[in-house]
């Protein structure tokens, strides 16, 4: 493995985030928009996908696919960030400015993943 250090950082972040879905499932279930069915299943799936994509980033034959998968995942979970912003119970007590800051952060994370798609 001769990848740049920031690829390892990205992989580590997604693996840890995915594990956290299993460590503290109620935290994530609480922020899933109410119009989505079965928050437990969605939390489990998103956590498992984050772990799988993070691991897949580490192997050159799957890095590009994993990066595209991360972009799709970040797009898929974007409604969660809107829901946190618009629903006080889902905001986890975070200040509004931070919830607003998270929205463009998602696009920065997508761009970061995009840099590994070619």
From TrEMBL:
Protein's UniProt keywords contain RNA-binding: no
Membrane topology: Multi-pass membrane protein
Keywords noted in UniProt: Membrane, Transmembrane, Transmembrane helix
Transmembrane segments: 6-28, 40-59, 65-85, 97-114
Keyword Transmembrane helix attached: yes
Top-rank taxon, per record: Bacteria
Signal peptide span: none
Compartment annotation: Membrane
Primary localization: membrane
Pfam families registered for this protein in UniProt: MauE (PF07291)
Location of the Methylamine utilisation protein MauE domain: 8-77
PANTHER family: DOXX FAMILY MEMBRANE PROTEIN (PTHR36974:SF1), MEMBRANE PROTEIN-RELATED (PTHR36974)
Protein name per its UniProtKB record: MauE/DoxX family redox-associated membrane protein
């Amino acid at each position: 493995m001769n990848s740049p250090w920031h690829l390892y950082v990205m992989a580590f972040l997604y693996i840890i985030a995915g594990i956290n879905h299993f460590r503290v499932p109620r935290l994530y279930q609480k922020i899933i928009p109410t119009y989505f069915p079965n928050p437990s299943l969605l939390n489990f799936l998103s956590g498992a996908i984050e772990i799988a994509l993070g691991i897949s980033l580490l192997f050159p034959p799957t890095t590009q696919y994993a990066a595209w998968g991360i972009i799709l995942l970040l797009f898929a979970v974007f409604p969660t960030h809107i829901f946190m912003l618009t629903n006080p119970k889902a905001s986890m007590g975070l200040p509004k400015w931070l919830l607003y800051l998270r929205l463009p952060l998602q696009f920065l994370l997508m761009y970061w993943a995009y840099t590994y798609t070619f």
